[in-house]
Protein: Coat F domain-containing protein
Amino acid sequence: MNANHQASFTEKELMNDLIASEKQVTSAYNVGITEASCQNLRQHLTKCLNESQDIQYQIFDAMQQRGWYQTKQAQTQDVQNAKTKYNQMKNELQ
Structure:
């Protein structure tokens, strides 16, 4: 490749890469949190996870506004079913 030639990516391609990267980062933080035995480290990783999730949402929102990340509207019953399912799981673990 010519040294003067630069790869050019569209804004959409860059944002797709960013959102994919943020998803990987949040996954890594989750693993780190579950593996950490030090409370201070867990708190720090949790703070980082929350910040990363905020960034991911900002990217998602920007992409959705541009029509680059389409999602379907959740039906009320589907939301209720998911809440029931996860509350049952939570109760079983307690």
Observations:
- DSSP finds three helices and no strands in the chain.
- Helices lie at 11-35, 39-65, 76-93.
